[in-house]
Amino acid sequence: MPSITRRAVLAAPLAAPLAAIAAPARALDPRPAVASFSILADILREVGGPFLSIDTIVGAEKDAHGFQPAPSDAQKLARARFIVVNGLGFEGWMPRLIRASGFKGTQITASRGIATIKPAQGHGHSHGHNHSHGDEADPHVWQDPRRVQQMVRTIAEGLAGADREAAEAYRANAARFVGELQALDTWVAEQFATIPRARRRVVTSHDAFGYFGARYGIDFLSPQGLSTRSEPSAQGIARLVQQIRRDRITALFIETGANPRVLEQVAAESGARIGGRLFADALSKADGPAPSYVALIRHNTRAIAEALAG
Fold it and tell me: Fewest CB atoms within 10 Å of the CB: 24, 74, 77, 112?
């Protein structure tokens, strides 16, 4: 008996440190979370770190505008502790999917509180000057790294409020990523600094770059509206072709995931050349040029700046 007692006494000091080590391991068990589309999933991953296991509804190089959810998507939501959506009507299918899934966790709308812009009416393009908070607001807020900084803080506070064990980690991750986004914003501005304002005109597949244009002083024109599901009119295409010829616009880009047919028609009728592809509403796959949000902004910036400078 004495030897057993001595072993118990000797083992007791070791038990406390082992318990302390085990506790953080349990706290690090990833919480299931779902993001509505790939760009938002990457932003959520930066904030959540190892505390979140993230599923994405609309994956890389997929168009969220015309997305049709499958039963497996409802199952993802049913298992989730958190759902993060963009809002502003971008995921029109999401409210129905959430109701069908029976989701009981925390929903975070990343665009909450962000100043939105409204595309110019009747011109087929957006300069990003008009501000609106109604149903017609442009939902593509992620195209401005400064607005994404606010999205990051909103996501972090939403997670922290519902998950106090990991709250400080979420806030610390958010602060780090905001610093990276501030540096990214400065870098993008520098790429356009030497290009005269009058030359900063770009044609894209649909009106997805209003926030990028408003931030960096670029006019984006497009044959389609805010959604890739909208159908451009023959008159709208004709006006765009005339403007390309008149202003000698040379920067034309097809967006990955969008139907290239309309922009190919515009290029053929205007004599302009399509310079490459931009990523508007989705990341590239892992081996592509835009596998993360930061890489997406850098890829688009380099492509646009090169076309405008040429």
Answer: 24
